[in-house]
Amino acid sequence: MTLAQDAGLTVKEMDMPREMLYMADEMFFAGTAVEITPIRSVDKIQVGAGRRGPITTNIQAAFFDYINGVVPDRHGWLLPVPVGKPAPVAAGR
Question: Which residues are 17's β-sheet partners?
Answer without folding.
Answer: none
